[in-house]
Amino acid sequence: MDAKTPSRRRFLTQTAAVAGVAAGAGLVAKDMPAKAQGQVQSTHVFDELPRRGARYTIDHMTHYTPLQDYAGIITPAALHFMQQHSSELPEINADEHTLTIHGMVDRPLEFTMEDLKRLPSVARVHFVECHANSSPAIHDADDPNMGLPVQYIHGMASCSEWAGVPLSVLLKEAGVKSGGTWMVNEGGDPGKFSHTLPMQKAMDDCFVAYNQNGEPLRREQGYPIRLIVPGWEGPFNVKYLRHLKVVDQPYMTWNESMNHSVPRNDLGGKSRWYHYQWAVKSVITRPSAGLEVRRGYNQITGLAWSGAGRITKVEISADGGKNYREAKIQGPVHSKAHTRFTFDWDWNGQEAMIQSRATDETGDVQLSIAELSQHWAIPIGDWKKLDKPRAIHMTAIQPWKVNRDGSLRDAMFV
Amino acid sequence: MQCLSKLLLAAVAMAAVPAAMAAERAYPNVGKPLAQAEIQRFDRMIGPEGKELPVGHGTVKEGAELFVKRCEVCHGKTGRNGIVRRLMVGKPGEPYKGSFYGQEMNGPSYYPYPTITWDYINRAMPASNPGTLTPNEVYALTAYIYYENGIIKENDVMDEKTLLKVQMPNKDGFVPAKPVYPPDPKWPSWY
Question: A64 and A52 in contact (C-beta within 8 Å)?
Answer without folding.
Answer: yes
